[in-house]
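Reading a protein record of the kind used here takes only a little practice. To see the layout at work, look at the sequence and C-alpha cells printed below.
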Amino acid sequence: MHEGEFVRQLRQVTPSVHDLVSRGLSAELASEVIRGYSIHPKSRIVASGMQDPLVRLIENYDLSNFHLADVTFPKEVECGRWGCVVGHYAGDDLVRRASDGSVFLMELGTTGHALYECAESGDKFLDALLRSAQFFGRSLASDQLEARRMVRECTALAGGERYARFYNSLIGCSSLELN
C-alpha cells in the first residue's frame, strides 16, 4: 500500500464521535480516540530515495498524533546497524530490516533481538495496520471471535503465519489459538 493511500483509507475508517459515544465512551475520550487517527502532510517533503511506503509515510506526514493501540511513529526515521526504526510498540522499536525490508519488533535494550516478526515489508505492515484501525474503530467491545478473525486477516495482509504473534498482541486476542 502506498503511503498516500494509507492516509486516505485511514480517514475513511476513522469513527465518528457519535459512533464512539453510542458505544459507551465519553465525548472527551471519543475525541481522543479520533485524534489518534489523525495524519497530516508535513510542510516540507523529504526525498530520501527510500522506496518503502512506511519510511515515506514517516518522512512526509506528521504522525505526532497517531496512535493505534500501542503503535506510534517517530518524527524521523533513524537508521542503524539493524535497519531503520519506523515506529514503536509498547516501549519497543518497530524496525525495518536493512537486509530484506521486513518489519520486526526489536526488544528495547537488546542488539537486534526480535520479539515479534511484524510484516514482510513496509507496505504490508501498512495494510495490516489499516485493517487493525478498522477493527479498533468499530469494535470497542471485547468480542474474542471478532478479534481472532481480525488477527487472521492482519496476519494474512502482513505476509503469513510468521507474523501472527504480533497481531495477536496488538489486537489483544486472549489466545494464540486463532482457529
Notes: The helical segments are 3-13, 17-22, 27-35, 53-60, 122-138, 144-158, 164-171. Residues 175-179 have pLDDT under 50 and may be disordered. The beta strands are 40-41, 61-62, 71-72, 78-79, 83-89, 92-97, 103-106, 114-119.
